Amino acid sequence: MTSTNPALARDIDGKAISAKVLDEVREEVQVLARQQIYPALAVLLVGEDPASEVYVRNKLLRAKEVGIRSLEYRLPEIASQNDVLQLIAQLNADVTVNGILVQLPLPAHIDEAAVIHAIDPIKDVDGFHRENVGGLVQGIEVLTPCTPSGCMRLLQETCGDLSGLHAVVIGRSNIVGKPMATLLLQADCSVSVVHSRSVDAPTLCRMADIVVVAVGRPQMIDASWLKPGAVVIDVGINRITTASGTRLVGDVDYASARTVASAITPVPGGVGPMTIAYLLKNTLVASQLQRGVRTRHSMPL
Ligand code: GUN
């Protein structure tokens, strides 16, 4: 029997896959506890950005669930850059703190780069320090940005081996686009990065087996950008106002894209939960590296 309804893409279940990652982290935390090693994560929030408050609360909750000790630090909106740098120096020196996360964005009067580079790279669980960025590009095992790591896990669980696939990353931020492209390259994909100055971005995107979108524009990518059967990872989380109130949408027009793609991450419930899971994984790895129970390995040059 033929169907008049074309098949819709299946959802990539970030909640289920992140639960698997959290289980893996919990198990390894228990192994460390038997050696009297207790990973701890310090989270610093400056000011009262409501979205950041929600993210920080979720990070602290999930940490507790896997047995990672968390320390919450708060500074007022008017805190000086020096106040932030002093706290980071104190946390760098504290051997009981394994991971340091400064929630971004920071208030406009604070230089974000100065703060990121003040964090000891071995405690930089965001993977934003230039030493970790450089290591990632060279294929050394370093602390790697959480959202791209989470996206890679979603892709591996969905596609298996990624070798030889053509991946298009839309967006070139330091937090997502650039590290994502690097990780895909390390997984032996052919990688294109499409951005606001790209000529005919939809045509480039239609060549992709894998599309990762991180542009911060609600529902920008629809079916017309996709090759039939493409796997779509939507990093965007945007709140839009509709006739019936507000709702969260991604950078991809989900209803349209799923008529062409073979698999797609929903928003919410796709990439979001993976970011926190990989933050906790990074905290675990940081504590293992600091205590010498894990050694770095390198990719072949
Ligand atoms: N704000 C939005 N995303 C992130 C992230 O991945 N890390 C930090 N520190 N702040 C963020």
UniProtKB/TrEMBL annotation:
Gene Ontology molecular function terms on file: methenyltetrahydrofolate cyclohydrolase activity; methylenetetrahydrofolate dehydrogenase (NADP+) activity
This protein's GO CC annotations: cytosol
EC number: 1.5.1.5, 3.5.4.9
Lineage: superkingdom: Bacteria
Key words of the record: Amino-acid biosynthesis, Histidine biosynthesis, Hydrolase, Methionine biosynthesis, Multifunctional enzyme, NADP, One-carbon metabolism, Oxidoreductase, Purine biosynthesis
Domain (Tetrahydrofolate dehydrogenase/cyclohydrolase NAD(P)-binding): residue spans on this chain: 145-289
Reported function: Catalyzes the oxidation of 5,10-methylenetetrahydrofolate to 5,10-methenyltetrahydrofolate and then the hydrolysis of 5,10-methenyltetrahydrofolate to 10-formyltetrahydrofolate.
Record HAMAP family: THF_DHG_CYH (MF_01576)
Protein name: Bifunctional protein FolD
Record lineage: Bacteria, Pseudomonadati, Pseudomonadota, Gammaproteobacteria, Pseudomonadales
